[in-house]
Predict the structure.
Amino acid sequence: MVSQNVTVVNAQGFHMRPAMKFANEMTKYPCQVEILFNGSVTNGKSLMDIIAACMKCGAQIELRCDGPQETEALAAAVEMISRGFDE
């Protein structure tokens, strides 16, 4: 398992469009992807779970990936969030 802390930087937070981009990208990887935020664990491949977590701009989250291609998945996830989902 690999993990990394990251801050949500885009002004609108993890709203519908970035959540959809994130979930779609993470489904390309065969590993488990989890987002830890505010004491809860969210499935990083589930659009509805990501939206329900209500992660706003400035939120400190931990990304955890476990399984095949976990390192690649984590790198892709961190890059997307750090870029602000190109918004």
In short: Residues 14 and 55 are 5 Å apart (CA to CA). The radius of gyration is 11 Å. The helical segments are 16-26, 47-52, 70-82. The chain has a mean pLDDT of 96.
